[in-house]
Design a protein that fits this description.
The two termini are 16 Å apart. The radius of gyration is 23 Å and the shape is globular. It folds into two domains: 174 residues, no CATH class; 298 residues, no CATH class. The chain is built from 20 helices and no strands.
């Protein structure tokens, strides 16, 4: 069930909002949490009901492990919990990948398990790993089973994040005495949701055909000229940004409609002036997860500069593999790992950077690097990626014309990402600590949202335009992960 589908907007969401606030008012907080739990399970099972037992089994096992860790100490229960969660991902997401590679390098003929990838498994397993680790560190309490179930299954963030830390939302879920400002929750939440929906439908989905044109030709073994290769690559950079940041906005907006503050996941990443800065702004919750639960346990920067750079590279390789069971994702992660290593080395030899007085040039070069890396992320194979890169290098000539539309889309994307403040900045006055944690110092200047008739009319118009353009429903890119 997609956030931008009519059945979600006008049936599911409407029913759940009315039921949640009615039950909370008349039957109490726990009853309202039960409504959210049931709604989230229905939302998850709408795609494939057979995976509901997997989701609920994961919730129950991690909850029991967390209580055991709290009562009996970390070892070996924490290790068991991490192995269990990583085992789920390894089985469902990577079994076929491992089998294919074993068959490619050995004479064995291991049968492909052909397992269907459960929706959101990468997100809810990472979320529960963070839960177990934080409980073991004393940073979170396990809480009640109902609360933990809501934490994991809460439908706004269940499918594609943001990856919510338990201590970012546990107190909100447990607070049965908080007074709901229904008007504020709905007005702010619906506005953020509408902006995210517009990003998805009016921008990401509009750019998709232009992005796909070159990649599809490359996947089919055709030759891609420079014009088509570059317009496809740059359009994909904007498509994936508007698609995933649109989803994150919609998740934050939905959470706020129910009175919950989810963490920011984007903060103007294409304004970044280095790869380090980019990962402070792109998929922020994944970056923090990799930092806190992989980079720091590997040693972080505590064992010397060389070990630090190696740790960064390893983390990005694994971060690439997390996105998908293909070597193209590993190369994408490796490229960003090299980019991080390069930036940290530059910081040592030139503390003010290569272009201290030309931030626009640093931002442009960072954007070009990110676009280059996206080619591997988007391509279906190394051959297809090589064809795209050959085209971008001009080895196939300019190629046929691509029309004006891709250039109009690119120009619009550049104007939006380089001149307008990101959603998190526009609503910063009305968002709480959990949402703005770690991003407040990087908020952009510019327009700030204020409630009123003008803003209500503007948001309603934007929502209406998005609705009438949603006749072809496209999945979010990160649903595949």
């Amino acid at each position: 069930m997609l956030f931008n589908s009519l059945e979600f907007l006008f049936i599911f969401l409407s029913i759940v909002l009315v039921a949640y606030y009615t039950v909370r008012r008349h039957l109490g907080h726990d009853a309202a949490l039960s409504v959210l739990t049931v709604a989230s399970i229905v939302f998850y099972g709408y795609w494939n009901i057979s995976f509901i037992p997997l989701l609920l089994g994961s919730v129950l096992i991690n909850y029991l492990l967390a209580h055991t860790i709290r009562q009996r100490g970390n070892q070996p229960w924490l290790a068991l919990g991490i192995v269990f969660n990583l085992g789920l991902i390894a089985l469902f997401k990577y079994a076929g990948f491992f089998v294919a590679n074993i068959n490619a390098i050995t004479p064995l003929d291991v049968p492909d398990p052909n397992l269907i990838l459960p929706l959101a498994i990468s997100f809810f397993t990472f979320q529960q790993i963070s839960y177990l680790v934080d409980v073991s560190r004393g940073e979170s309490e396990p809480g009640k089973l109902l609360n933990h179930t809501v934490y994991v299954t809460f439908f706004p963030q269940l499918i594609a994040g943001p990856i919510v830390r338990h201590n970012q939302i546990a107190d909100q879920i447990a607070d049965g005495k908080r007074k709901e400002d229904l008007g504020s929750n709905l007005s702010i939440g619906m506005t953020i949701f509408a902006i995210g929906m517009a990003k998805k439908i009016l921008l990401a989905d509009t750019l998709e055909p232009f992005a796909a044109s070159g990649f599809d030709v490359a996947a089919a073994g055709g030759e891609v000229g420079a014009l088509q290769a570059w317009t496809s690559a740059v359009c994909y950079s904007f498509q994936i940004f508007f698609d995933f940041s649109g989803y994150s906005d919609m998740a934050i907006g939905l959470g706020r409609m129910f009175g919950y503050h989810l963490p920011a996941n984007f903060n103007a990443p294409y304004r970044a002036t280095s790869v380090v800065d980019f990962w402070h702004r792109w998929h922020i919750t994944l970056s923090r997860f990799l930092r806190d639960y992989l980079y720091i346990p590997l040693g972080g920067n505590r064992k010397g500069e060389h070990r630090r750079l190696i740790n960064l590279f390893i983390v990005m390789l694994l971060g690439g593999l997390w996105h998908g069971a293909a070597w193209t994702f590993v190369i994408w992660g490796g490229l960003h790992g090299l980019g991080l290593v390069w930036c940290h080395w530059i910081d040592r030899v030139r503390p003010n950077g290569l272009f201290p007085n030309m931030r626009w040039l640093a931002a442009a070069l960072t954007f070009l690097f990110v676009t280059f890396a996206w080619v591997f992320f988007r391509s279906e194979s190394f051959d297809a990626a090589g064809t795209m890169l050959a085209g971008m290098a001009g080895l196939n000539g300019l190629g046929a014309g691509v029309g004006d539309e891709p250039f109009i889309g690119i120009a619009l994307g550049l104007i939006i990402v380089w001149t307008l403040p990101d959603t998190i900045s526009v609503f910063s006055k009305y968002l709480s600590g959990p949402t703005l944690s770690g991003v407040r110092s990087q908020l952009q200047d510019g327009w700030r949202w204020k409630p009123g008739t003008l803003s209500a009319v503007g948001v309603a118009t934007l929502f209406f335009i998005a609705i009438i353009n949603s006749w072809t429903i496209a999945e979010f890119i990160y649903y595949q992960f």
